[in-house]
Every structure is written in structure tokens, then in C-alpha cells.
Design a protein that fits this description.
- The protein has 288 residues and is α+β, with helices and mostly antiparallel strands.
- It folds into 2 domains: 7-117 and 269-281, Probable inorganic polyphosphate/atp-NAD kinase, domain 1 (Rossmann fold); 124-261, Probable inorganic polyphosphate/atp-NAD kinase, domain 2 (Tumour Suppressor Smad4, Sandwich), CATH 2.60.200.
- Helices cover 19% and strands 39% of the residues.
- It has helices at 19-31, 40-46, 53-56, 69-79, 105-113, 186-189, 274-281; strands spanning 7-11, 36-39, 50-51, 62-67, 86-90, 118-131, 134-141, 144-149, 156-162, 165-172, 174-178, 201-207, 217-220, 225-229, 237-241, 244-249, 254-268.
- The strands form 3 sheets. A 6-stranded antiparallel sheet has the order 7-6-17-14-9-10, covered by helices on one side.
- Strand 9 and strand 10 (165-172) form a beta hairpin.
Length: 288
């Protein structure tokens, strides 16, 4: 064995199409005598003993995620707090984060297990939802924190403060507050910029703003962002963390967003090239 001794395998929820990849991965690691620990999704697919994610954090020193970016986001939010490095095997649709080819496990995974890899430190966001002095809930996001109207298609009105300084009040369908990792997700589809993952920054992208001069705004990673839902426009809304763990909001509620102290250790094969990923996934240079 190499640098890593106890490996956890995380799988996309209830996706039988990845079962063959899981079997191949488990066989590959078992033949090399790595102790393996499966999360509940992988365990159910393979009908083997499995563990809850929280249990796995105490058992493993490397996580291999089989699925798409969403699967890695889910595992990464928890594993980031325990400094456990993560490798992604791509069985999803896009794959900005999961870049191991299932057909090239030996060529790409073996060097990583031996300690030859490219490591990135990806930032996360920490957000809290407040109603006056009452904390409604909180959550972490590797991609983005999103505020949007719920149960209806209507604009919401909110006021933005950065480091306690008034920025603006705007009408929009919502707002995406994203990490550099999340800049190629919902923020990009809403017209935001692509940010290199190493940047210490946060981007705020309005979704369908009523005023066309309301443009995406990039701020420093240490910024405190406060979004206050205006009382004079009583639209029920919602805040989501990476598209999950929704908290329902009312007019007058406030969201506080900062950069989390946790970082995700994301491992790639040697020779990893972020710009190659962009060219491939966004079809840059494709002849139409």
C-alpha cells in the first residue's frame, strides 16, 4: 500500500447504473489489500456492509466518490471538516470535480494511491438564516448559497450589505452566492464569471434582475455578506445550500454568508489542467 491506508467509497444515491464501476473499484482495491469502508449508497448497491457518513469520517484517510459532481458535493461538505482528501470517479453528466475515468482506473488511480497527485484546496461557504434574534438554520456549501422565491414565480426584493456597508436593494428572481468552485454551476448559467478555483473570492450573481445594470459582483473571500429580505414585498422565499437543505424564509429574514473555515482537499491525477476541463466541459472551440 502507499500513502493511504483506509479508503471510504461513496456512491451516487440509488443509481444502479454505477454498480459495475463500484464492483470494478472494489475488486481493484481489494486485490491491493486496502481496507475498504462503503457508505450506505454503495453498500446497498453491492449488498455489503456499509456505514453512515459520520461513521466513515472516523475510519478512513481517503474518500473515493463514484458518481457526478452532486455526489462529490454531498460527501465533500461533510469530509471537509475532517481534512479527508477526496477523489472523484466520473459517472455523472458533467464532471467538473470528478475527473477519474472509470475505464482508466489503474492508470489514473494507482499513482494517486502511491502519493503522486495534484491537490487543490477548495473553499466552502457558511450561511445562517435569521428571523430577528432567532436562528432558523444554517448550512455549508461547496458550490453556492441560493435565495429564491418559493411556491410561485415572482420576484423577491432584498437589500445587500457587505462588511456592514450598504450595497444596494434589488428586485430579482433570486441571487446566487458562489465559491470559485460554484462559479461554473448555477452562477455560470445565471451570467456570472468563471473564477479559477485558487482565488480567494466570492461571487454574487443576481438571477433575472429587474434592473439590467445589476451585474455580478466579486468580493474578497473574507467578506461578510448579509442579504435582508425587504418587508414591503411579502414574498415567501427559500435559501438552499448546494441545492439541498432548504430553509423557508419570510419577509424581514436575513441571511449571513461567510467563507467557511473548512477546506475540501480535492485530489486529481498528475497533469491535471483546469483549463482543459473548461475546454472539454464547455465545448470551447467546437466547430458548429
Amino acid at each position: 500500500m502507499g500513502q493511504f491506508n483506509r479508503i471510504g467509497i461513496f456512491a451516487k444515491r440509488d443509481d444502479v447504473q454505477i454498480r459495475d464501476t463500484l464492483l470494478t473499484l472494489v475488486q481493484y482495491l481489494t486485490e491491493r489489500q486496502y481496507p475498504l469502508y462503503l457508505d450506505c449508497h454503495a453498500g446497498r448497491l453491492l449488498q455489503q456492509t456499509c456505514y453512515e457518513t459520520q461513521e466513515l469520517t472516523q475510519l478512513i484517510d481517503l474518500a473515493i466518490v463514484v458518481g457526478g459532481d452532486g455526489t462529490l458535493l454531498s460527501a465533500g461538505r461533510t469530509l471537509s471538516a475532517y481534512n479527508i482528501p477526496v477523489v472523484g470517479v466520473n459517472r455523472g453528466r458533467v464532471g467538473f470535480l470528478v475527473d477519474i475515468n472509470p475505464q482508466e482506473l489503474d492508470q489514473q488511480l494507482a499513482p494517486i494511491l502511491a502519493g503522486n497527485y495534484h491537490e487543490e484546496s477548495r473553499t466552502l461557504l457558511q450561511a445562517e438564516a435569521w428571523r430577528g434574534e432567532r436562528l432558523l438554520g444554517q448550512g455549508k456549501a461547496l458550490n453556492d448559497v441560493v435565495i429564491h422565491a418559493r411556491d410561485q414565480i415572482r420576484m423577491i426584493e432584498f437589500t445587500t450589505y457587505i462588511d456592514k456597508k450598504f450595497v444596494h436593494t434589488q428586485h430579482a428572481d433570486g441571487i446566487v452566492v458562489a465559491t470559485p468552485t460554484g462559479s461554473t454551476a448555477y452562477a455560470l448559467s445565471s451570467g456570472g464569471p468563471i473564477m479559477h478555483p485558487t482565488l480567494n473570492a466570492i461571487v454574487m450573481v443576481p438571477v433575472c434582475p429587474h434592473t439590467l445594470t445589476q451585474r455580478p459582483l466579486v468580493v474578497g473571500g473574507e467578506s461578510l455578506i448579509e442579504l435582508h429580505l425587504c418587508n414591503n414585498r411579502p414574498i415567501n422565499s427559500r435559501v438552499s445550500f448546494d441545492g439541498h437543505n432548504d430553509i423557508d424564509l419570510e419577509s424581514g429574514d436575513c441571511i449571513h454568508i461567510t467563507q467557511s473555515q473548512d477546506r475540501l482537499r480535492l485530489l486529481h491525477p498528475q497533469g491535471y489542467d483546469y483549463y482543459h476541463i473548461l475546454r472539454t466541459k464547455l465545448y470551447w472551440g467546437l466547430q458548429l
